[in-house]
Specification:
- The protein is built from 3 helices and 3 strands, in the order ααβββα.
- With about 70 residues, the protein is of the alpha+beta class.
- A hairpin with a 2-residue loop joins strand 1 and strand 2.
- The longest helix has 16 residues.
Amino acid sequence: MLGKRRNLGLDAPGYNQLNELGNEAIRLGLIVGHGYRGGKYEILQQGEAMLFSPQQAQTYLQDLITREDQT
C-alpha cells in the first residue's frame, strides 16, 4: 500500500494528514465522505463528487476547515 501512496505523490505522513483532514471535515459537517478513487482523491460534498490530486485535496480541505473555524 505504501508503494501505491508514493505513486500518488504522498508518503505515509502526507497520507495520514490527508486522511485526518478529511475526517475532521466530516466531523464538522463540511463533507460527507473522502478517499482515493482511481488514482485521485475524491471528496463528497453537498451531493457532488469532486476529484483532486492528493496535494490539491489537502489544500482544499485545509481551506475548508480554516473557513469554518473563522465563522
